Automatic annotation (TrEMBL), chain A:
The chain crosses the membrane at residues 6-25, 32-47, 53-71, 83-102, 187-207, 227-249, 303-321, 359-379. It comes from the Bacteria. It comes from Terribacillus saccharophilus. O-acyltransferase that catalyzes D-alanylation of both teichoic acid and lipoteichoic acid (LTA). D-alanylation of LTA plays an important role in modulating the properties of the cell wall in Gram-positive bacteria, influencing the net charge of the cell wall. Catalyzes D-alanylation from DltC carrier protein. GO terms for biological process: lipoteichoic acid biosynthetic process. Belongs to the membrane-bound acyltransferase family. It is found in: Cell membrane. One of its GO terms (molecular function) is acyltransferase activity. Signal peptide: none annotated. GO terms for cellular component: plasma membrane. Pathway: Cell wall biogenesis; lipoteichoic acid biosynthesis. This is Teichoic acid D-alanyltransferase. Keywords: Acyltransferase, Cell membrane, Membrane, Transferase, Transmembrane, Transmembrane helix. It is a multi-pass membrane protein.
TrEMBL record, chain B:
The lineage of its organism: Bacteria, Bacillati, Bacillota, Bacilli, Bacillales. It is found in: Cytoplasm. GO terms for cellular component: cytoplasm. It comes from Terribacillus saccharophilus. This is D-alanyl carrier protein. Keywords: Cell wall biogenesis/degradation, Cytoplasm, Ligase, Phosphopantetheine, Phosphoprotein.
Amino acid sequence: MTPYSSFLFFIILAILLLPTMILGIMGKHLRYYNVFVSIAVLALIFSGGDEGFYSLVIFTVLQLVLIKGYISYRQKKNSSLVFYLMSFLSILPLILSKILPFLAVDNWASFLGISYLTFRAVQIIIETRDGLIKQQLSIYQLVNFMLFYPTISSGPIDRFRRFQKDEEKRWTPEEYKELLYKGINKIFLGFLYKFIIGYAINTYFIMDLDHIADGRFSYHLLYMYSYSLYLFFDFAGYTLFAVGVSYIMGIRSPENFNMPFISRNIKDFWNRWHMSLSFWFRDYVFMRFVFLMKKKKWIQNKMLVSNLGYVLLFLLMGVWHGLAIQYIVYGAYHALMMTAFNYFETWNKKHKRWPTGKIMTIVSIVITFHVVCFGFYLFSGRPFQ
Amino acid sequence: MDFKEKVLQVIAEVCEDDVVKEEQDLDIFEAGLLDSFATVELIVQFEEQLGINVPITEFDRDTWNTPNAIIDRLNELK
């Protein structure tokens, strides 16, 4: 059963979470009962047969061995080679799951949520390398974090140390009531976004575009706008469910969206759209790449370093969505937009030609909106059909 | 120059703005003075000029957001 896709799922979830809410309001520890809920919901999600239950099990065991092994190793030594090898092995199942379909064999490596789970695991290895995780982690801690069901299928991607703080916490009744209120609020807003607005845009506009548009150009233009809005409401709606359910379980999962369509420039957009993913790439790919280049003094030119960082980040992000042409083009497009903006920003800092003020802010928002929508149009795959 | 002044000097150099020396509770990310690229520069400078090693993953925008907060965090790591 796909999470949050049917009302049956929500009804079962509500029944399972009722004791959590009662325990929370009484100020009791939630973690023990939550384990039971997690197992029950994971069984519900993965028992369908199409979601790759066995791949999930093998994947989890592999990640546990890698993480626990690396923490033990890191307590004694710290070789870069071992770090890169461990990171590669951790990402290997994800790479396989993307490549196998092209080899025309059964995609045995894939399961629901593999892209997101991989990032949760690799992140622990990176933070161990940086010396931020020093103590050995228990199997319970790791499994609980990696297989946290509310966010298993499509994120948001939480960070281990942040998750752990919430998980260990015993909320007071007042604190929990606040969380519960916010959680329920989010879930209902999610219904509005995904099942009302998103559904309406798709059913009454996108699927009816043949009748609405009066030419090829207007068809594609209207498709670009409506698909962008649909993508936002559908994904933001899902995220509201995931974060809302997390809150009810006492875990404040990070947000994914912060009004992305009012971004003033492309850089601002990536601080507002799919934030948990873009911040992951920012912290674990872009900044590490820049740091390495500066530290080793391999490339002196600042502009070149940051632009190469953007190209690396966005191409990886594109491929992460899948190896299909539209995702690679989408990544390349955003890499291009970011480097272009990088040049513009540096130039404008010197010459101050771009006027400031309310009207220019609106102009900037409108321009960014179109740049972003064209990106989603590429992402949709429609231009490549 | 004491430690605090040194840190402020490094931040001001990286941000290319002396406002951080006066307004020490200014959110440098919200003010647009620091982005992820400049953050890395700041981390490299802390290491080179102050000898303090800040892991990139430790530099969290919620707790390293103002000059005062950065001074506090660096004092903890010293």
